[in-house]
Specification:
- This protein has two domains: 3-118 and 130-257, Roll (Thiol Ester Dehydrase, Chain A), CATH 3.10.129.10; 266-506, 3-Layer(aba) Sandwich (Rossmann fold), CATH 3.40.50.
- It has helices at 13-23, 28-31, 33-37, 48-56, 159-168, 173-176, 178-194, 266-272, 292-303, 316-325, 343-357, 381-408, 420-423, 429-448, 483-494, and strands at residues 3-9, 65-74, 84-92, 95-102, 105-116, 150-155, 200-209, 220-229, 234-243, 246-257, 283-287, 307-312, 332-337, 362-365, 412-416, 453-458, 502-506.
- 45% of the residues are buried.
- By secondary structure, the protein is an alpha/beta fold.
- Strand 9 and strand 10 form a beta hairpin.
- The N and C termini lie far apart (57 Å).
- Strands 1-3-4-5-2-7-10-9-8-6 form a ten-stranded antiparallel beta sheet. A seven-stranded parallel beta sheet has the order 13-12-11-14-15-16-17, with helices on both faces.
Length: 507
């Protein structure tokens, strides 16, 4: 028997809020747009178990059957507002698989086993109040996840929100089992709030249920014991769930522990770029300057006496922190909040720089949208094109607006490209395309404005949020260069002799 079915599903912010209310999983990667934007994903990620519910809602219930076993693989992140395909197949009576797909890419793989259950005990009396030990996600140090570390507690989902959630995704509580569905919600709570907590990304879950029909749906108690945390950040735990003191489910979970974002250090940079006034009287504009390499380039220029206009669009707190950290530098830092892909905004900034400083000596185009892997196929074509349009504009618009001012000062146009133009990581077609495009664009700019100088920077692997996560393994994070070192090398080159050509500079 192999009956295949296909249907569509997509997720909204309301779905995230409803799932959080039901499960008590309040991890900000899923709920906070501001928090998620600063991660490698650049946007909110759908709860893995919510994606699994989207699959389960497409599974036809069986008479007198409930879930006896669940196996889930969360292979790639799921995002809001994208129409995904759910494909289900019944391999034998009671053995059903489901896949949540983005084109040819399988994001979630689920296997459900349904078993006969002829004597389901109804719930009697008042249901327990919603309960969960933690209200905010734990964020332990990785060294705390040693073998044998145990998380224990009591748990019960919010009944009203759970009922609404099941209705939203067409899941029959009686057909699949209230306790089983509650256990799935608990697994999301455990991973997102406790083990590992704040920096979690769910990757696998297996649960086998034992004699659940003998017990009433009552408050659960749980025990999760760490088995291992490997060198790749994969945390493996052994799970046990109890109802009325008796074991009702056991299994195993795996979650990727996202590395903590590396905090760039102005003091560390100062050891590489000793303070001087070598660039006193010079003016720089750094596009995408609040975090990562852009922040360190701004700092390196300011440490050399340059006046630096720091452009940012949304990361205002980081930009202001950078300004404060550089208040004792020989140069000064001015903030410029706005969208560098907007022609009118750039024209207003060009007028401001011309009026206040009368010149522009360095334009550094560093901004780039968050990067996620994409396959080349019809389903993703518009997302690829949209990425290329948005990323290209962050370079083409500033170069179009500021090139004349740069040429008047015989200044430097600097475009941060990537070693990806040479290595072409197979899941980054949009990123490779835009970096090739901006390199070609800069070469033509050099023909039209020959009095300026041009530097194409091709960094290799940098320790930034771009590669600080499981989605971006083409570069990886091992042996990556701190942005302070890259910034020091770039600013040192900008103080050297000009070549009269578009120079490719590898760091």
């Amino acid at each position: 028997m192999n009956q295949d079915h296909s249907s569509k599903v997509q997720f909204s912010p309301d779905d995230l809020a409803l799932f959080s209310a039901a499960s008590h999983d309040r991890n900000p990667l899923h709920l906070s747009a501001e928090y998620a934007r600063k991660t490698t994903f650049g946007q909110q990620v759908v709860f893995g178990i919510l994606g699994a519910f989207g699959c389960l809602g497409r599974v036809e219930p069986r008479l007198n059957c409930t879930l006896s076993r669940v196996s889930l693989e969360f292979r790639h992140p799921v995002f809001l507002g994208i129409e995904y395909e759910v494909m289900t197949a019944e391999h034998s009576p009671g053995m059903i698989s489901a896949k949540l797909c983005d084109g040819s890419k399988v994001l979630i793989k689920a296997d459900f086993t349904l078993a006969q259950n002829s004597s389901i005990a109804p719930t009697s009396g008042a249901l327990p109040e919603a309960e969960a030990p933690l209200q905010i996600p734990a964020d332990p140090d990785d060294t705390e996840f040693t073998e044998g570390t145990i998380a224990r507690g009591k748990y019960w989902p919010d009944q009203t929100a759970m009922a609404e959630l099941l209705h939203r995704f067409g899941i029959d509580e009686h057909a699949f089992g209230k306790l089983q569905l509650s256990a799935l919600l608990w697994s999301s709570y455990l991973i997102g709030m406790e083990q590992p907590g704040l920096r979690a990304l769910f990757s696998k879950l297996s649960l086998a249920f034992e004699n659940t029909h003998e017990y009433q749906a009552d408050r659960l108690s749980y025990e999760a014991r760490v088995i291992s945390l490997n060198a790749f950040g994969s945390l493996r735990s052994e799970l046990q769930l109890f109802s009325e003191g008796r074991l009702v489910a056991k299994g195993e979970s795996r979650a990727f522990v996202i590395p903590k974002s590396r905090v760039q250090s102005v003091s560390e940079l100062a050891s590489l770029v000793p303070q001087s006034e070598q660039l006193k009287g010079k003016v720089a504009l750094v596009v995408g300057a609040s975090r990562g390499l852009g922040a360190m380039l701004s700092a390196a220029l300011a440490l050399q006496g340059c006046t630096v206009v720091v452009n940012f669009n949304r990361s205002e707190s980081e930009a202001r922190s950078l300004q404060v950290n550089l208040k004792e530098a020989p140069g000064r830092v001015a903030l410029a909040k706005g969208d560098a892909a907007d022609v009118s905004w750039c024209e207003q900034l060009e007028e401001r720089i011309s009026r206040q400083y009368g010149r522009l000596d360095f334009l550094i185009c560093n901004a780039c949208p968050a990067l996620l892997p994409l396959n080349i196929e019809p389903k993703t074509a518009e997302r690829i094109n949209s990425y290329v349009r948005n990323a290209f504009a962050l370079v083409s618009v500033p170069l179009s607006v500021f090139s004349k001012l740069l040429a008047d000062a015989s200044g430097w146009s600097v475009v941060i490209s990537s070693i990806a133009v040479e290595t072409s990581p197979k899941e980054w077609p949009h990123y490779v395309a835009v970096k090739c495009a901006v390199e070609g664009f800069l070469r033509v700019v050099a023909f039209q404005y020959p009095r300026a100088n041009y530097l194409l920077v091709r960094p290799s692997r940098l320790q930034t949020d771009l590669v600080n996560g499981p989605s971006n393994v083409p570069f990886g994070i091992s042996k990556a260069m701190p942005p302070e070192i890259a910034a020091a090398k770039i600013v040192e080159r900008l103080q050297g002799a000009t070549t009269g050509t578009v120079e490719v500079f590898r760091v």
